[in-house]
């Protein structure tokens, strides 16, 4: 998931952005809602974080592109306005409202709302995926038989992307972007990473959709 962050408060941003980058998330920071919407137009799967406390005058019309495209949104505000914040037009499953000050774990849990269902998260870093348990911080997976396997950062990014949206087909080109340019080159293709993940957790979890990409099969 690409996170598009619309923010001008560098202190608030750094507290949370550094943690997200440590966990391997792709984060792009912009300074206006119009720029944020432009970035999302080219993203296959993304989340928008918008700190409304620094920009006045934003109305429903400004965020209608998010509504129409069902792009998930985390709205942050310094003032709680029950029933009045403009993002109330978004379906509940597509919008989370946070009031400053926001704790790091609280913010992570808000992101988890759009990553396979909050009820699946054991902690802000541990996620139950059927018979598997993924720990983002340690980059480890506990398999169904209790074995603990270590993942590389690239492997974790791919597994996390697929597992958070079971049965959704992700194009190989998107997964290549998820891994990032630093992991490019001979022997570091998406296919190689997927093969290594299958070897570590079991071949039946990740399906190849010929001509389209990969999807995750949740096994209970």
Which tags fit this structure?
23% strand, four-stranded antiparallel β-sheet, 33% helix, five-stranded parallel β-sheet, 2 domains, 220 residues, 12 strands, single chain, alpha/beta, Rossmann fold, Arc Repressor Mutant, subunit A
Layout: helices, strands, pairs:
Blueprint: E1 2-6, H1 10-22, E2 26-30, H2 33-40, E3 46-51, H3 60-69, E4 73-77, E5 95-99, H4 104-112, E6 126-129, E7 132-135, E8 140-142, E9 148-150, H5 153-164, E10 170-171, H6 172-179, H7 190-201, E11 206-209, E12 213-216
Parallel strand pairs: 1-2, 1-3, 3-4, 4-5
Antiparallel strand pairs: 6-7, 7-8, 8-9, 10-12, 11-12
Helix pairs in contact: 5-7
Descriptive account of the structure:
The protein is of the alpha/beta class. The protein folds into 2 domains: 2-112, Response regulator (Rossmann fold, 3-Layer(aba) Sandwich), CATH 3.40.50.2300; 119-216, Winged helix-like DNA-binding domain superfamily/Winged helix DNA-binding domain (Arc Repressor Mutant, subunit A, Orthogonal Bundle), CATH 1.10.10. It has 7 helices and 12 strands. The protein has helices spanning 10-22, 33-40, 60-69, 104-112, 153-164, 172-179, 190-201; strands at residues 2-6, 26-30, 46-51, 73-77, 95-99, 126-129, 132-135, 140-142, 148-150, 170-171, 206-209, 213-216. The strands form 3 sheets. The chain has a 5-stranded parallel β-sheet, sandwiched between helices. It has a 4-stranded antiparallel β-sheet with strand order 6-7-8-9, with helices on one face. A hairpin with a 5-residue loop joins strand 8 and strand 9. Helix 5 packs across helix 7. The longest helix has 13 residues, at 10-22. The chain is globular. Mean pLDDT is 81; it is low at 183-187.
């Amino acid at each position: 998931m690409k996170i598009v962050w619309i923010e001008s408060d560098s202190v608030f941003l750094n507290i949370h952005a550094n943690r997200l980058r440590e966990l391997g998330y792709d984060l792009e920071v912009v300074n206006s809602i119009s720029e944020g919407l432009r970035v999302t137009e080219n993203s296959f799967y993304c989340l928008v974080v918008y700190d409304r406390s620094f920009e006045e005058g934003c109305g429903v019309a400004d965020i209608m592109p998010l509504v129409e495209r069902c792009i998930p949104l985390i709205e942050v505000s310094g003032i709680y306005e029950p029933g009045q914040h403009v993002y109330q037009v978004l379906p509940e499953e597509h919008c989370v409202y946070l009031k400053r000050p926001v704790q790091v774990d609280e913010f992570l849990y808000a992101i988890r709302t759009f990553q396979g269902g909050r009820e699946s998260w054991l902690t802000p870093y541990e996620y139950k995926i059927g018979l598997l348990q993924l720990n983002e911080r340690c980059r480890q997976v506990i398999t169904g038989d209790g074995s603990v396997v270590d993942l590389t950062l690239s492997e974790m990014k791919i597994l996390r992307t697929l597992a958070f949206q079971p049965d959704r087909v992700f194009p190989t080109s998107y997964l290549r972007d998820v891994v990032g340019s630093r992991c490019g080159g001979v022997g570091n293709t998406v296919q190689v990473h997927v093969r290594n993940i299958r070897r570590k957790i079991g071949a039946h979890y990740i399906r190849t959709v010929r001509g389209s990409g990969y999807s995750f099969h949740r096994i209970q």
